[in-house]
Amino acid sequence: MPTFLFDQIIFGPVKSRRLGTSLGINLLPTQSKYCNFNCAYCECGWSDYKTNADLPTCDMVLDRLRAALASMKSDGNLPDVITFAGNGEPTIHPQFLEIIGGTVALRDELSPNCDITVLTNATMLQNPKIKKGLMLADKAFMKIDSAIPATIQLINEPLAPVNLERLAEQMHAFGDKLIIQTMFLRGTVNGMPIDNTTDEELDRLIQFYQKAQPSVLHIYSIARATPLDSLSAIPHDELEHVGKRIESHGIKVNVY
Fold first, then answer.
1. Continuous segment of H or E residues that includes residue 174
2. What is the pTM for the complete model shown?
């Protein structure tokens, strides 16, 4: 299926089903996806992480963010949220800490009522600079699509193995800032079946959520084009059922 790339460093504002009016920051290349995951469902397509990447500098990002916020302020249309997202994993940018620190300063100056959020796969939390940077955000949306290593490999194809026990502990440190997001889907990848709504998958995910203790869990399914034609969305009524099962274990859930 055709996929989508953000062609600007600062993009939007866009209307987000979860965040409201969001001004996006893309720290990755504008011509290709650059990520340490290679998720089968990613709207940005397949990752080109192993090649050299032309990443925007800290000054470039902050100059363009200042211009965008100043323009929106003059129009009386400031965003609800500034969101680090874009064409891959934002925390792999080598100047992530400096950029998010500068973003906080610009937010405080030009748009003090908006939140700063980061969408991340959380694989860089072992890096003290990345953890420090994420702690500057108002909310950190962290991904976990399965708590079974073999399923993680099929759905997310991480560049390095995911230590689930350590990841849950690292997420837990973010307290109320932590929002976990899980994509539920079915289909096949490389001829192997995927369904992370099974009893075994949900039991393992619930155990992970209980250790990480997010302020809220966001669950959703495929809503945009994916790189593979062999994936299918979970119907909303089934997602509602999954949400109720998770909530019965003390986890607050929003279904999208």
1. none
2. 0.93
